[in-house]
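Sequence in, structure out.
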Amino acid sequence: MKVFRIFLLVLLTVALGMSVNAQKANSKKGRQVNVPMVYRVDSDNDGVPDVRDQCPNTPKEMEIEKDGRKSKVKIEVDDYGCPVDTDKDGVYDYEDKCPGTPGDAQANNMGTMGPRENNGCPWGDKDGDGFLDNEDRCPDVAGVPRYFGCPAPDFDQDGVPDEEDDCKDKKGPKHNRGCPEMKDSDGDGLLDYEDGCPDKPGPRETKGCPKVVSAAEEAILKQASKIEFESGKATIPEKLQKKWYPILDKVADILKSKPETFMLIEGHTDNVKPQKSPFPDNKALSEARAKFVMDYMISKGIAATRLKAVGYGDTKPFEIDSPDAKPLTKPEEIAEYNKTKQQKEMNRRVKMTISSVRLW
């Protein structure tokens, strides 16, 4: 019985195909063809007979609202009489705000697939906080994971989250943990939040901590800062090594005698651009020279964690060098401090500062 039903279904399909093809052929010849009524019924007038129309009630056009305006759109159907869904996301093109482009939908339009609740578009991340809008409890404001995409609570609105704010009901800067009180407990001119030793007065140069080097040791550091390198390079000429290596050894001895201290090594240059040099500019050259001194200290047994090498190039001339000085940016300003041979010699230096706290 089952085989007989399948046979009838196949026969009906073949007959339908032959009838439609005959109708098309005779239409071209101008002849009327007698097609059974069952093959001519097309309830929604979409060109697909009801017998094979999987969406028999699809209208030719429909009024939709898009961007706040209502308009009528023509509904295109596929070979089965259903509205076209190019990106195969279950939202028909006429109501899909991200329908994709015609072609192989699976291969070309995966990026436009989206749920019906988002009008057929993929969920985005408007506030860029890593939470998709459908999961983000605050989709318009960047937030953090522990608050499901919402900003951390900030009762006093001072920009410091309550969980980090020591004064939740009073506004204050982040560096003072949200509290307004700005104390200078030791009276050295540095507020406690920026003072490495808030209970002991000291100069800004050592981050508010007392100096840990004697006048004699300070003189050695100043002498070492004048180390002479090969032009455009970060190496000491062979003929000058006997002069400078012993001085650098003395710096290493100071550090060894003060094991709880740290040293910041700053490289500086004049404004003459390196010529025939492996370094592209003065900043790179100054960094390499500071790194040379750092590596030499390490070779003498000083732990790398106690050292920091930075390069400023020609942006911090000797005459204005201070912890508060901001690097210069304009060439004409830099040129003002490099007019004479003496100025240029003073600017070429590797400054070394020893402190009881890290200066970086």
